[in-house]
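Anyone else keep sequences and structure tokens together like this?

Example one:
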Amino acid sequence: MPSTHELKRGIRFGDLLLFYVVSGLSVRWAATAAAAGPSILVIWIAALVCFFIPLAACVMELSSRHPDEGGIYVWTREAFGDSSAFIAAWTYWTSNLPYFAGVLYFGAASTLFAFGAHGLALRASPLYYVAFAVIWLAIITLLNIRGVNAGKWLNNVSALGSLLPLSVLVVLATVSYLRFGSATHFTASNLMPHWTMRNAVFWSSVFFAFSGVEAGSAMGGEIQNPRRVIPLAILLGGSILAIGYIAGTTALLVTLPSEAVGGPDGFVNGIRMLTTHLGMEWLLAPLALFVGLNAVGGAAAYLSSTSRLPFVAGIDHYLPSAFGRIHPRYRTPWVSIAAYGLAGIGAALLSQAGTSVRGAYDVLVSMGVISYFLPYLFLFAAMIRLQGEPAGPEVRRVPGGRLVAIALASIGLVSTLLTIILSTIPPEDEVNKPLAVLKVVGGCALLVGAGIAVFLVEKRRARRQRGR
């Protein structure tokens, strides 16, 4: 069985910073947030304070305590043992299976705007969306098997897909405001969040947008000097995320009515309306392609990082030992990457069954939120538990020490629980609400149950092998 020391440490500070940008700054969430109206700006700040800051602080310390390949798997194992670590990792990597299809559906819808009326004719075609997701997942998988340099190249280039469209949006919004004023009236009343079922779904999406800073730590064995690089990249990358989301949402609210930016094509549809209003239609095609690139980069970043979790579980004998293999030439966990990519393709094919494109998109988003946030319960709990363990001088602790660390982790834990509860509520325009809830909750229950079954089977098999 190979060790993680055979992996290539090819990820530098700049690579990790762009990884956090492409994995965390998804332009679709700016449109999703703007569709909820001005009060979402307050929710952005609440998500920043109650979820992102606690998460970033916990990841900084946990990745410094245990800067190993596997990230959240290793942290949970050190705090609660092997079984909890496996379930945390299992829910984390399976949660990204619906995420891949969801973010690539957004990219598929956005790309169509670059091809005019002929492209928009495919907006309701399930075959087009599935083909877009499957082809890109195959390309991403092959690049990551090819090596760290090939995989990070796609991540780095795709970061432009979030930075450039959001920057252009802010500039266009400023021009629109100076020429026409604001499309949204901001008052103390409409800035105050009002509880409704529809708003609850949007709020859970906003918290989901700030997730992901733990993903880079899954590649700890491939990062050069992870104890130093990870905290610095999180600080700078987190600042870019916060500014990008709040500025992008504000720009959409200033230029367009909130109902114009909903759905999987909401962001680019808003750009189309804005460029038409300003007489700058020529900007639409390149921006649409960049937004599509942003979606591809998001899928690539999570596939490259999360595929390392089955690899480490294979080394620990909680998955078949083949998952722990390293390619002799490319020095990548190629079996784990290949299996994960194929599973993502399978999820994309299954997600479209029995629903419309919009319905499939909403189910993918909600299912991704629930299953993706379950591992955060382990992460924040591990942070609290490990405060009782000694930390050497090389460990970067949360400023303020043990009490501040526990307080931040507790805030993150509560925010995670609330987000999971809110994300089970289907949107108001869902035709079959019971079916939507059944798909989301039932799908997540099946994922967790399958993880428990796999763990028990592999544990029993490992015991039999040791007994021979």
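And example two:
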Amino acid sequence: MNIRSLVLAVGGFLAIGALSPAMAMDGVVASIKPVYSLVAAVMGDTGSPELIVEGAGSPHTYSLKPSQARMLENAKLVFWIGHDLEAFLEKPLETLSHDAQVVALSKAEGLKFLELREGGTFEGHDHGHEGHDQDEHAEHEDHDAHGEEHADHDHDHEGEEHAHHHGEEIDVHIWLDPRNAAAMVQAIADALAKADPGNAETYLSNADLLTVSLSRLEDEIGEALAPVHTRSFIVFHDAYQYFEQRFGLHVAGSVTVNPEVMPGAERIAEIHAKVSEVNSVCVFSEPQFEPKILAAITEGTSTHSGTLDPLGASLEDGPNLYFTLMRNMAAEIRGCLAGEG
């Protein structure tokens, strides 16, 4: 019996909790800000999760603090993307959170996966053939398609495997597609409902409302970016292809292949040539890294520079962070590509 069927079966009992939340659930931990935001939105008034990667920290380079180690020791439920993004959490989850349920959101049903791209220049990639649904028989969706239903599912993710799909390495920046965020929301709600059945109806109801809001967000961003979708730009590292493909954008390449390693003179020269070759309108950095190399890359060109924040580093933690993050990215891309500001 899945979680939703269980809720219906005991609906009379849970109706009491629908009027006012049952005792708040503690011990819920989220790895990064976008995950934290979605978990907080699903939890609503029942409680608040705790966050591991705070402020401008990057999951690529983060070091666990003693207070966060204690947080994991006391955790009942931990949400993360998975090893390939938050590798620093793998051993602490094994040694500190052995009593907690660990939910890898990269395993959520209904995700659309994109293969990890090689190198830092992406010419020749086919927007129509890089996506992979978890159901290998599922057809690719059109950008304008909305309102797909999310199948009921029952998650019990213990441990974690590397993100691979049909033998390929997967880009794990999955939250930058609102439809993937909706799939993650369903997985979050199911895990919370199983761990805290007294508030199950609230979690599932909040997830349904959040899914509708994510669909509206997709429409809003798609409309905002439509006027600039033919213009190319360069990003700091290749973290944006989910956003890029969902909204029909053209990223011509990335400054660095590995965000943990700053590019050298040869790489800077290569990207400078790429900017001129493809007539990129913008080059974007990130607040977690703030490279000082953008001036060298854009020197002698008419290319503008901007900042994209895929983790919400500068945003206040909370249930609205994900929506603000996505809107801010869309506004920054549109403004830079349109030559505004």
